[in-house]
Design goal:
Layout lengths: L6 H10 L1 H11 L7 E7 L3 H9 L4 E4 L6 H13 L3 E9 L6 H21 L3 E5 L14 E5 L6 E5 L7 H28 L2 E5 L9 H9 L6 E6 L9 H8 L3 E6 L1 E4 L7 E4 L8 H10 L4 E5 L6 H12 L3
């Protein structure tokens, strides 16, 4: 509701009812927004934690997934003493579709990462379960994906004849099956550690549309498997706000990154510093509000100063 007062009425109202103006102010206030916390990616060392805290950050996502629990617990104690939180562990790339030996190694490594995350006090381990390539793949603007919601298998990736892309469809469906098998093997370890397996989709040629990715994450029907969304990674496939809407309550963490689409959108482009690309940040903020996301916004990449990163992330959180 907007209340327009001309100059004369303003003074009359001010003199007559200050309390009334306070009430009107309350009624006109913007709806409360979800609470977002600021982080970056790095190693949880004292100098880093102190500097980031002074710059306005709340936490860190560590890349040191391989450390023993005792070392991770010491890092947690250090971070908490400085008013910081190690909120996530970045494991990164897996190879669950690489055969039996790769599957066994991948599961073992992720179990190590989950134990470390528990000791860090982290809520999540970021995991990219596999990737595919070496076959013809449609350009983003060509995609017309249809899939089986029960199996997650692709039926088509473009309209019309899909013969050119059959090898991609086959590789994608094999990867979905292998990733499903591997992640299911990890769920007991995640539950024991009370740490979420946060699946991220990172230019791995898989799950190229929001509903396809959300369907895969949802297929586990487990609170210990959710989605980690990188806001800049899939701009060329669909607007970030569409990915956020599709994931909805499955979204557990966000990476903050930007991407500048090329002049022949959406065929190409380049990553860039946040707020310098094609991401509609106010739309992203609204989408996060709409799904009720209260969580971390972790900057990844770029070459801005610490202070500039903090300033720009503040603007994003403010919906600007």
């Amino acid at each position: 509701m907007n209340i327009a007062l001309n100059r004369r009425n303003f003074f009359v109202a001010s003199a007559a009812a200050g309390a009334g103006l306070m009430l009107a102010e309350t009624l006109n206030a913007a709806p409360s927004k979800t609470q977002l916390r600021k982080a970056m990616i790095g190693a949880p060392e004292e100098g880093t934690l102190k500097t980031w805290k002074a710059a306005g950050f709340d936490g860190i996502e560590t890349t040191k997934w391989y450390v023993p629990p005792r070392e991770a617990a010491a890092s947690r104690e250090l971070a908490e003493s400085l008013g910081m939180q190690i909120h996530s562990v970045l494991f990164g790339w897996g190879n669950l579709n690489g055969g039996a030996a790769a599957m066994a190694e991948g599961v073992s490594q992720m179990q190590t990462a989950l134990r470390a995350a528990q000791a860090y006090g982290a809520a999540t381990v970021l995991y990219v379960p596999c990737q595919i390539g070496g076959v013809p793949i449609p350009e983003p603007h060509q995609l017309d994906i249809r899939f089986n919601t029960k199996s997650g298998h692709l039926r088509q990736v473009v309209a019309g004849n899909n013969a050119k892309y059959q090898k991609y469809i086959d590789a994608h469906n094999h990867a979905v099956d292998a990733c499903s098998e591997g992640v299911r093997k990890l769920i007991p370890a995640a539950e024991k550690a009370q740490v979420v397996i946060a699946i991220e989709n990172v230019w791995n040629n898989l799950w190229l549309k929001p509903d396809l990715f959300a369907n895969f994450v949802a297929s586990f029907q487990s609170p210990w498997v959710r989605g980690y969304f990188d806001i800049g990674n899939h701009v060329k496939y669909a607007p970030p706000q569409d990915w956020i809407a599709a994931l909805d309550k499955l979204l557990v963490k966000c990476h903050v990154k930007d991407f500048k689409l090329g002049p022949r959108r959406p065929a190409g482009g380049d990553f860039c510093n946040i707020r310098q690309g094609s991401v509609d940040w106010p739309a992203v903020r609204k989408a996060l509000d709409k799904i009720g996301y209260n969580g971390w916004m972790t900057i990844e990449g770029g070459d801005l100063s610490l202070q500039e990163n903090s300033k720009r992330l503040d603007l994003i959180i403010a919906g600007k």
